[in-house]
Write a structure and sequence with these properties.
Layout: E1 3-8, E2 20-27, H1 30-38, E3 47-50, E4 56-58, E5 62-69, E6 74-76, E7 82-85, H2 90-99, E8 124-125, E9 128-129, E10 134-141, E11 147-151, E12 172-179, H3 192-200, H4 208-222, E13 230-231, E14 240-242, H5 243-252, E15 259-260, E16 265-267, H6 270-276, E17 283-284, E18 287-289, E19 297-299, H7 305-323, E20 332-334
Parallel strand pairs: 2-5, 3-5, 4-20
Antiparallel strand pairs: 1-2, 6-7, 7-12, 8-9, 10-11, 10-12, 13-19, 14-16, 15-16, 17-18, 18-19
Length: 335
């Protein structure tokens, strides 16, 4: 394991923000992790844990130690579960599952980031969430340097939420995740967009691979490729509001879309709220809001992370003023 100094983080975040880390270490084994936390030189320094860099916005240089988790390996276990190391790319894992006869995560195709960060925000798309296929995970407890196991219920998964974003925030580093994937070939095509793509190709009984291909085509048509335009995917969470408040909004905005959560709550698409507030396609210097998906803030090249953060705050204020709804940022802001 090598610790480098004054390293640009531009290749390590999908927004492509060119900030510098005072110290930078790539962790390829659990022993590397224990060594770095035992190193006297770094004990008192602030630390930033990096996975795929797909859910962060860097607003300044990091005057501490950046720890890049690069643990690799995918293993089918004798009990039928699949164990994946934290540094594996999420979409590569989806493709591996399809190639090896597993299904259940095809709806989560092309989500950026690594497997280790997926449980933190309970990633989800097109009717499927990580918690639906999650068994347990192993995590390094930073203070004790012990490895603890968290079950599905112990993770306290919610909509883009988990215990690692709240009460246990900053206490653990996820090492591996174990999944309960199916081999039935049964697929979930409840989302209309998936159904529309399949129907356009005259596919009646889709395979998991065909559902994955449909999801990929949908995402590619709506979302910019981070390799071409810097972004972190969905910047805001879709707000969940009371059904009674939604009915009042519906009186003024007849076309407002929603998805029922339970008898008293509904989810409203944040992208729709942002678009209706006039932000879709807005360009400010070298950053802005994507022209095809208002939920995505973009760096067109050389943008400052703090400028993008200030844009996000203005969008929040605008949506609050127009709809009396507060948008929560899904992306982690590193100041």
């Amino acid at each position: 394991m090598k610790v480098l100094e004054n390293v640009s983080l531009k290749p390590y975040n999908t927004f492509g923000i060119d900030c510098t880390a005072r110290y930078f270490a790539i962790i390829e084994s659990r022993s590397d992790l224990r060594k770095i936390y035992a190193e006297p030189e770094f004990l008192k320094l602030p630390k930033l844990i990096l996975g795929g860099g797909s859910n962060i916005l860097l607003c300044s240089d990091f005057e501490g130690l950046v720890i890049k988790i690069d643990l690799k390996g995918i293993e089918g276990l004798t009990d039928g579960s699949v164990k994946v190391q934290a540094g594996e790319n999420w979409h590569d894992f989806v493709l591996w599952s399809l190639k090896n006869g597993y299904n259940g995560i095809e709806n989560l195709s092309l989500i950026p980031g690594n497997v280790g960060t997926a449980p933190m925000q309970n990633i989800g798309a097109y009717g499927v969430e990580l918690k639906d296929v999650f068994l347990d995970l192993e995590a390094f407890h930073i203070e004790s340097e012990e490895v603890h196991v968290f079950s599905n219920s112990q993770c306290e998964f919610g909509y883009r939420e988990s215990i690692f974003k709240h009460s246990r925030r900053g206490e653990y580093i996820i090492l591996s995740v174990r999944f309960n994937l199916a081999n039935t070939g049964n697929v979930d095509v409840r989302y209309g967009a998936i159904t529309a793509v399949l129907e356009s190709k005259s596919i009646v009984n889709p395979t998991p691979k065909q559902v994955s291909d449909a999801v990929i085509s949908i995402r590619e048509s709506k979302l910019p490729d981070p390799k071409k335009i810097g972004n972190a995917g969905s910047f805001f969470k879709n707000p969940v509001i009371l059904k009674s408040d939604f009915i009042k909004l519906q009186e003024q905005y007849k076309d407002i879309p929603s998805y029922p959560i339970n008898d008293v709550e509904v989810k409203v698409p944040a992208g729709w709220l942002i678009e209706k507030s006039g932000w879709k396609g807005k360009v400010i210097d070298n950053y802005g809001v994507h022209k095809n998906q208002a939920l995505v803030l973009v760096n067109y090249g050389g943008a400052n992370g703090n400028d993008i953060y200030q844009l996000a705050k203005k969008i929040q204020e605008s949506v609050k003023s127009s709809f009396d709804i507060h948008l929560h940022m899904e992306v982690n802001i590193i100041k």
